[in-house]
Amino acid sequence: MLLGCVAALAPSQAFAQPDRPSLPDRPSLPDRIAGRSGWTRTATVGQHPAGRAVALFRYCSDDSSQTTVVGADRDSYRRLGVSGFDEWPDGGLIAPDGTGVLLLDADAGDQVPPAEDGHRVRLIDLTTGTVRRIPLTDWHTNVGTTPRLLAWSEDGRYVAYAVPASTDGTAAGAYEDGLPVLDLAVLDLRTGVSARYSAIRPVRAAAFAPDGRLAVQVRRQAWVVTVHGAVQGRVTLPAGQDLAGPAAWSPDGLLLATTAPAGLSTLVGFDSRVEFVDVPGAHRPVPAPVAADRLLGWRSPDHVLTNSDERVDDVDLSDRGIRTVSQLPEHGDQACQLQLATALVRQAAIRAAADPDRGTFPVWRLLAAAAAVVVVGLGGLSGYALWRRSHRLTCFHRSTCAHRSA
To answer: Where is the stretch described as Disordered (predicted)?
Structure first.
């Protein structure tokens, strides 16, 4: 009975968070990202929606850890899945406006698509917790390659992703320079229909411009294409550099950012940096390289947000000034696969981090409630024992009196 009472106090939707003051219109990035919680369970978006998010990440130290989002209006932390095993690693993409996340379903990592409805992505609405499952284009391979989510357009309508190129099912032709050969595909979220462009391959990365154009890395070039697959131009990338992921295109549409290939920036002694190239037809001075591991976003055409070690820096491309704006967890809780909502960070303030709101019933209340149950239970047992003792004494006296009368 006691255990049942305590279990009833466990985190659930019945314990909604208390009413909060109205949220600010301007989004913000916390100056510190919280580490994993060893005391409270972080709720899922479906259990306790917390609104738009400014960042998406996973904790590096736990292979089964879930993808987590950080609130853009307060220090809310929410998991996206019930467990880390219903997500495909590296399969998350946050919307530029922070209102949604796309996740590859775990079965999207299978080598052969399911026979029924193919592979799907989950579109999670961070404001309501609702989930919409959308099919991807068909593909087939048995050499271990998987789809990859690449970039999300600023208007929220299109998602660029890559799928294994059609092969005969063997390793021959499926890899080039040790990397899988992937075709470009574009998903229209409004219609739920994907288009595949097999002429644009092998795809390595992609980024959307503010006007909807798409930069796609094909070998050592960035191809500027439309969402309908029309190629409008090409630019050669710096030696040893790849397109810098979904945040690569500057907000003025004139520059593309590049970074070292994934994995190289973590090597000891490797000189990691972010470099820049001008878009075909653009006329803007190209900034000098910035010493950093990764590009996370742009604050303006002259300010970028970069990630190095356990920090996020705001770098001024004009005077080379560097200001650390957010500290990431350390000591085994490092954040992996960190992404920022690229449209939000251009207008975001930097806020002082508060105690994390994990969407769960506070631990101290659980302990207090459990203690109260114990006290009430012990009080009830004590009262029952006293009653039993009084009842037995009454019966004893009555039986003694009756015996004497006889």
So the answer is: 16-35
Listed in order, the ranges of the chain carrying CATH 2.120.10.30 are 27-358
CA distances from 286 to 273, 302, 317, 319 (A): 15, 11, 10, 14
The whole-angstrom distance between residue 260's C-alpha and the CA centroid of its chain comes to: 22
Provide Rg for the chain, Cα atoms. Answer: 28
What's the Cα-to-Cα distance from 5 to each of 11, 30, 156, 262, 347, rounded to whole Å? 13, 37, 45, 50, 47
11: left (phi over 0), alpha (psi -120 to 50) or beta: beta
Residue whose token pair is 């853009």: 72
Give the contacts of 293 (CB within 8 A, at least 6 positions apart). 259, 260, 265, 266, 272, 306, 307, 308, 309
**Coil, helix or strand for 305?**
strand
Distance CA 108, CA 114 (A): 9
DSSP structure string for 26-59: S-EEESB-----SSSPPPBTTTS----EEEEEEE
84: pLDDT strictly greater than 60: no
SS3 of 175, please? strand
Q: What is the pLDDT of residues 295-314, one digit of tens each?
A: 999 999 999 999 998 899 99
Options 3.40.50.300, 2.120.10.30, 2.130.10.10, 3.40.50.150; CATH of 27-358: 2.120.10.30
Alpha-carbon gap, residue 68 to 231, rounded angstroms: 36
Query: Are the C-beta atoms of residues 44 and 314 closer than 8 Å to each other?
Result: no
DSSP 8-state code for residue 200:
S
Question: Of how many residues is the chain composed?
Answer: 406
Euclidean distance between CA atoms 89 and 104, whole angstroms: 9
Q: Is the peptide bond before 114 cis (omega within 30 degrees of 0)?
A: no
Going by pLDDT thresholds of 50, 70 and 90, the confidence category of residue 169 is low
Q: What is the mean pLDDT of the chain?
A: 80
Neighbours of 344 (CB within 10 A): 24
